[in-house]
Amino acid sequence: MVAAPKDKVWARLMDIPAAARCVPGVASVRPNGKERYQGTLAVQIGPVRLVLDGDFAIIARDEAAGTASIRADAKDSRVGGAIRATLDLALVEKEAETQLRIGTDLTVMGRLGEFGQASIKRKADQLIQDFAECLARQVTMR
Q1: Mean pLDDT over residues 6-30, rounded?
Q2: Which position has the higher pLDDT, 78 or 113?
Q3: Which pTM does this prediction carry?
Q4: Cα torsion for 13, 18, 22, 26, to the nearest 10°?
Q5: Burial state string for 101-129 with b = 16 or more CB within 10 A and e = fewer than 16
Q6: Closest CA to 89 of 66, 106, 72, 107
Q7: Backbone torsion region of residue 18, taken as left when φ is above 0, otherwise alpha when ψ lies between -120 and 50, otherwise beta
Q8: For residue 80, is it left (φ>0), alpha (ψ between -120 and 50) or beta?
Q9: Of the residues 16, 53, 76, 142, which has the maximum number of CB atoms within 10 A of its CB?
Q10: C-alpha span between 30 and 51 (Å, rounded)
Q11: Regarding predicted confidence, which is higher, 93 or 117?
């Protein structure tokens, strides 16, 4: 739960470069067209450090309903492999607070899959949790 109204949380969430700073390991995010972005994420999974370069886009957005979907495609050319993820975001206002729900669908391709889907999923879940906590802090500080 975020101790802020839904519209304030929505505004921060849809400011993609600012929201991306809440994802641990994000090295850069830059616009690449309407509702499209390019970025780099450095992440450690066990003994392996990955540098994922990719594109992501807002593929659905409904401000009135407080829902959005973001698709990300990234690859690590050193290790060889790619990740495709879809994030489904939903905001639900309850009194003076807003609940942020994040659903993920993650596919791991190529050699990245050799690290184990479970390890990668755990890392992705941790990144999402850290993102949500950081976003809540940012919104309530303003």
Answers
A1: 94
A2: 78
A3: 0.88
A4: 120
A5: ebeeeeebeeebeebeeeebeebbeebbe
A6: 66
A7: alpha
A8: left
A9: 76
A10: 16
A11: 93
Distance, CA of 23 to CA of 138 (rounded, Å): 12
The pairing of beta strand 81-94 with beta strand 67-75: antiparallel
pLDDT at 142: 55
Please list the residues that pair with 98 across neighbouring strands.
Answer: 2, 93
pLDDT digits (tens, 9 = 90+) for 26-64: 999 999 999 999 999 999 888 888 899 999 999 999 999
Place of tokens 């999974």: 45
Q: What average pLDDT does range 77-102 have in this prediction?
A: 92
Contact 74, 18 (CB under 8 A): no
Comparing 117 with 66, the larger pLDDT belongs to 66
Q: What secondary structure does DSSP assign to 100-142, as a single string?
A: EEEEEEEEEEEGGGGG-HHHHHHHHHHHHHHHHHHHHHHHHH-
Location of structure tokens 């609940």? 99
36: tokens are 């499209």
